[in-house]
Write a structure and sequence with these properties.
Blueprint (H helix, E strand, L loop, with lengths): L2 H13 L4 H14 L3 E2 L13 E6 L3 E6 L9 E6 L4 E12 L2 E9 L12 E10 L5 E13 L20 H4 L3 E4 L6 H13 L5 E11 L4 E3 L5 E4 L2 H16 L6 E6 L16 H13 L3 H11 L1 E5 L2 E2 L22 E3 L10 H14 L4 E3 L11 H9 L3 E5 L1 E3 L6 E4 H16 L4
Parallel strand pairs: 1-2, 4-13, 4-14, 14-18, 15-19, 16-17
Antiparallel strand pairs: 2-3, 3-13, 5-6, 5-10, 6-9, 7-8, 7-10, 11-12, 12-20, 16-18, 19-20
Helix pairs in contact: 5-10, 6-7, 8-10
């Protein structure tokens, strides 16, 4: 598989995944094309050695399992998350000001707000409808046309705009949607878009979870095309790379890809990393194929390893003082091991040594990130999943700029680097 083919597939995945529901559906599409079978959590499971199966929860979180041909003794787990910071619509979204229909929003996660101004915004998410026969159905919606914008205030009217002024998301972020919108009906617009995309006529809108997003497509940037610029690289890049590694592997070892929703808001949900999703699935798999009982499950978990993949902060050429002098990861310099003495990352010397050995095996450079001692440190699903399951874990990621912006930047070569390492991990016989 050529690097260019992988990059084209990545750009297509990013473009078609404006929300966690779309990202999960797109991963499901590739899994099913590769022969993975869907499991229903409400049904009894019949599993066979060597099978490849997947489970979704809330349509926004995914677990894919490659079951070993032999005994279920260890699992090579790759973790990522499907959600990204952004602007979500409030339930009663329409509001009118100065003759314009606007949409009330709330900020999802720790979004960098300033870059959202003056962008062409589409609308996507999940809508639940009622049919004429009373049946309820959830459908995905993706309005790719630029239908909204959050206009900036002119510098002439705000002379302090470039002096670090704070942004009030309640009063200064609602996007404009339609002029003369006093009588506009958002439900009517939603029904029209659903009819266009799903052929559903005459349905009633019951509820929705919708987000705004930048319709500018992802692209390669730089004289040599060495960069990728896109929305939602954090953390769809890890979802894509984890899926590539699983599908590229030889299929002999037991492996898991888990992509949780809600990481950006703390992971505390039924389908988040702090919830029971992964534990529920692994207990059922162990009951079907592994050593039975609680002791058998604990032995399986302690024999397994989890590589939690979430992007890392690359050294910014304009802000070099924001990094520790000895720990400034370079874009296109290889995957980054993330370390924090206070357990904001789950890496320890044992799991880090395994990853460094995998990088040596795959002939891939490896880097390390530690935040400055005088700055706070973010976290990810690694410590949460490790705490919930007890599985030995490390946190790694592709280096990137502008994390949590509406458009982020990463390196082309790093996509191939991390895919090669994770493929070697999935194929590794001894953990």
């Amino acid at each position: 598989m050529t690097q260019n083919a992988r990059l084209e597939r990545l750009l297509d995945f990013l473009r078609r995944s404006p929300t966690p529901w779309h990202a999960t559906a797109n991963m499901v599409e590739r899994l099913e094309a590769a022969g993975f079978r869907r499991l229903d959590e409400t049904a009894a499971w019949q599993l066979e050695p060597g099978e490849r199966v997947y489970i979704t929860r809330n349509d926004s979180s995914l677990i894919a399992l490659q079951l070993p041909h032999g005994p279920l003794e260890a699992l090579r787990m790759i973790g990522a998350h499907t959600d990204s910071p952004g602007l979500r619509l409030k339930p009663q979204a329409p509001q009118v000001a100065a003759g314009w229909l606007q949409l009330g929003i709330e900020v999802y996660g720790g979004a960098l707000l300033a870059p959202w101004y003056d962008r062409d915004l589409g609308l996507a998410g999940r809508v639940h409808v009622r049919h004429d026969d009373g049946r309820l159905e959830g459908v995905k919606l993706n309005v790719e046309q630029p239908l909204a914008i959050v206009p900036s205030l002119a510098i002439h009217l705000d002379r302090d705009a470039n002096n670090g002024r704070s942004i009030n998301p309640q009063t200064e972020m609602p996007p404009v949607l339609l002029q003369g919108g006093e009588d506009a009906d958002l439900d009517r617009l939603l029904r029209s878009w659903i009819a266009d995309q799903h052929g559903l006529e005459g349905v009633e809108i019951i509820d929705f979870e919708l987000a705004l997003y930048d319709v500018q497509p992802p692209s390669r940037v730089g004289v040599d095309g060495e960069l990728i610029a896109s929305a939602r690289l954090d953390n769809l890049l890890s979802c894509f790379i984890g899926l590539e590694a699983l599908l590229d592997s030889d299929g002999r070892q037991g492996a898991v890809l888990v992509a949780n929703d809600h990481e950006e808001v703390g992971s505390a949900s039924a389908c988040g990393a702090q919830g029971p999703f992964l534990g529920d699935v692994l207990k059922r798999v162990n009951a079907a194929l592994g050593e039975p009982g609680e002791e058998g499950f604990i032995r399986l978990i302690q024999s397994s390893r989890l590589i939690s993949c979430d992007n890392a902060h690359a050294l910014h050429p304009n802000f070099r003082d924001k990094h520790d002098a000895a720990h400034g990861p370079a874009i296109n310099g290889g995957p980054v091991i993330k370390v924090n003495a206070n357990q904001r990352y789950a890496t320890n010397s044992d799991t880090s040594a395994m990853f460094r050995d995998l990088c040596r095996q795959a002939d891939v450079p490896v880097q390390t990130f530690v935040t400055r001692a005088d700055m706070g440190c973010g976290s990810t699903i690694g410590p949460i999943t490790s705490t919930e399951l007890g599985v030995p874990t490390l946190d790694v990621g592709v280096p990137q700029w502008a994390m949590h912006s509406i458009r982020e930047t990463a390196g082309v070569r790093d996509v191939d680097y991390l895919t090669r390492v994770l493929t070697a991990f999935v194929e590794r016989e001894e953990l």
